[in-house]
Amino acid sequence: MAIYLLRRFNLFLATSLLMLLILFYVTAMFPVDRAFALTGIENPSAAEAMQIIADYRLDKSEFSQFLAFVDQRLSGNLGISVTSQQPVAHELTSVMPASFELAAFAAMLALLLGVPLGVLASLNQHKLTQHAIMAITLTGYSIPVFWLGLSLALWFGVELGWLPISGQINLLYEIKPVTGFMLIDTLLSDSEYRIPAFKDALSHIVLPGITLAILPFTVVVRITRAAMMNVMNQTFIRAAEARGLATATIIVRHALPNALIPLLKHLGLMLGAFASYAIVVEVIFSWPGVGSWLVSGIYQRDYTVILGGVLAVSVLIIFLSILIEVLHTASNPLSRKELYASN
């Protein structure tokens, strides 16, 4: 197992290094001076210009410049935002928790609703029910996320006025950031309005959370249904039925844990699509996360923000994909058997 983990770690390093190489190549294509694209300093003084040349080795070969670029980025130096004149790393850490909170909320909705519905679709003997569930999931999978987000905002936010359509919380509430997760920070706050603030934050995350959850929800339902239908035909399930175990016990203790293993693998494969959906959702609902921050940087031609945001999102996707693969291997007996056999 140690050799397998070492291989996955090497894969993470190699993929991240390739991403850094692509970003380094892209900086040369920006229609501005490379020093400005790397640092965000538009009119550096003589001393600053010399320091930039020394830090990024701009007077050296391309390979030496790439090594310097990697060294600066790994040390946490992502440059300065052109628009705000604040360190990009500081801005990134301030918007990252909001994206994590939205993604976690959407993933929780997708799993809590998708897994039971997938189990129901696999066990239900009525063809009409099965076809109805699969038709709903196929429709949800086919709907463009921008159209769905705008439609939900129009129906439930503008016409009915049930839910807010922008922001993370009402500006009237002053919540001191502790964890960066607004739902948690409102409950941790010592303000006498923490419960109304929590309800307000919850109402703000409902529409973007539902919009972002549609894609993983449909995938969860379809994969869970297919996996459950396969598991329920296995020999150990037949043996459990022959022993007289209740159907609910068989499903919860034996069938469902085995059906969730392929689901874990497919969730890892859709991280890239999930991240792109999240960016669109954040822009639609003005959610103060990495997506809206990155798109704003693109509109304003803030090259350091673009480089820093793309690097952070890419490395995070690479890390989570490899982590899910490791978890899938550790939880799958067949994968562990092949792993030990290869070692």
From TrEMBL:
What Gene3D superfamilies does this protein map onto?
MetI-like
Q: Which residues cross the membrane?
A: 12-32, 102-123, 135-156, 201-223, 263-285, 305-327
Query: Membrane topology type, per the record?
Result: Multi-pass membrane protein
InterPro entries reported for this sequence: MetI-like, MetI-like_sf
Q: Which residues form a coiled coil?
A: none
**Cellular component aspect of the GO annotation:** plasma membrane
Q: Which SUPFAM superfamilies match?
A: MetI-like
Q: Which GO terms of the molecular function aspect are on file?
A: dipeptide transmembrane transporter activity
Q: Which family does it belong to?
A: Belongs to the binding-protein-dependent transport system permease family. OppBC subfamily.
Name under which the protein is recorded: ABC transporter permease subunit
Q: Which organism is it from?
A: Shewanella cyperi
Tell me the organism's taxonomic lineage: Bacteria, Pseudomonadati, Pseudomonadota, Gammaproteobacteria, Alteromonadales
